From TrEMBL:
Bilayer disposition of the protein: Multi-pass membrane protein
Name of protein: ABC transmembrane type-1 domain-containing protein
Localization per Swiss-Prot or TrEMBL: Cell membrane
Taxonomic superkingdom: Bacteria
Family statement drawn from the similarity comment of this UniProt entry: Belongs to the binding-protein-dependent transport system permease family.
Residue ranges crossing the lipid bilayer per the database entry: 12-30, 68-94, 106-127, 139-159, 179-204, 240-258
Domain ABC transmembrane type-1: 68-258
Keyword Cell membrane among UniProt keywords: yes
InterPro entries reported for this sequence: MetI-like, MetI-like_sf
Length: 273
């Protein structure tokens, strides 16, 4: 009886949290189709008229499409680098035994404990010396360095795979690269999909790294563009709402279609057989 009551309370808390979140998102979208004057003078009332002018203005006057393009390029490039680097590292850690293996795993575990902000000064100097300031490539490299979580999840997955798969491929004459690329990596696709979705949220919404490395308006990401509007929120209320909606929708769509794969992938990487 106590267990059922606890489950009921947990479900009610989750229901209230989800309801509040949906209300906030709905209110955000609803107000984005109102004029600035209507938002400020009739905040909680029914709108006098519906308008898409805010969306038109941010694309026509502020060239918001450039911010979207920068965010998309950084997201795709960072995900490709993260998956390639973390899968190869994890394959080596999970499939082979060698000296200092535990130390390397501990190194990646420590990487989850320290935020990127602690090392932003040397990161800034390295990117500047490489000539990648005001470039999406510099942001990609910095974002791709955060592979601690992918490495740990994939390492556990590769370590739990039957050794017979590797030995059979070896007997058939397959080399190390072919075994990894043709056999092991496809088997890890559930975890890779979940990692892509979860990691993409942090990359898409990342504010700090682009703020430090991107000063040119033409290459700034969506969060930096939204900051431009919120710095003077009363004058740019409509633009801030419209840009926030455009920044939120892609992530919501991704989670809506891939939420099941995310749960399956995390379970595959985290449960030992």
């Amino acid at each position: 009886m106590f267990r059922s009551e606890r489950q009921y309370i947990s479900r009610m808390i989750l229901f209230l949290y989800c309801s509040f979140t949906m209300f906030v998102l709905g209110y955000l979208v609803w107000n984005s189709f109102r004029s600035k004057k209507d938002i400020l003078t009739n905040t909680i009332g029914w709108p006098k008229e519906w308008s898409t002018q805010a969306y038109i203005n941010i694309f026509k006057e502020d060239h918001f499409q450039l911010n979207i393009f920068s965010s998309v390029i950084i997201l795709i490039g960072s995900l490709i680098l993260i998956i390639l680097l973390s899968s190869m590292v994890a394959y080596g850690l999970g499939m082979y035994k060698f000296r200092f293996k535990k130390g390397i795993q501990f190194y990646f575990l420590m990487g989850m404990m320290f935020p990127m902000q602690l090392g932003i000064v040397p990161i800034f100097l390295i990117i500047k010396n490489m000539g990648l300031m005001n470039s999406v490539w510099g942001v990609m490299l910095v974002m791709a360095a955060g592979i601690s979580t992918p490495v740990l999840l994939l390492t556990n997955f590769f370590a739990n795979l039957p050794r017979s798969l590797y030995e059979s491929a070896k007997i058939d004459g397959a080399g190390e690269w072919k075994i990894f690329w043709r056999i092991m990596l496809p088997l890890a696709s559930p975890i890779i999909v979940s990692l892509c979705i979860v990691t993409s949220v942090g990359i898409w919404n990342n504010f700090f790294v682009p703020l430090v490395l991107l000063q040119n308006d033409n290459v700034k990401t969506i969060p930096l563009s939204i900051m431009k509007y919120t710095s003077n929120i009363m004058m740019n209320m409509d633009s801030a709402l419209a840009s926030s909606v455009l920044a939120t929708i892609p992530i919501l769509i991704a989670f809506f279609f891939f939420s099941k794969r995310v749960i399956e992938g995390v379970a595959s990487g985290g449960v030992k057989e």
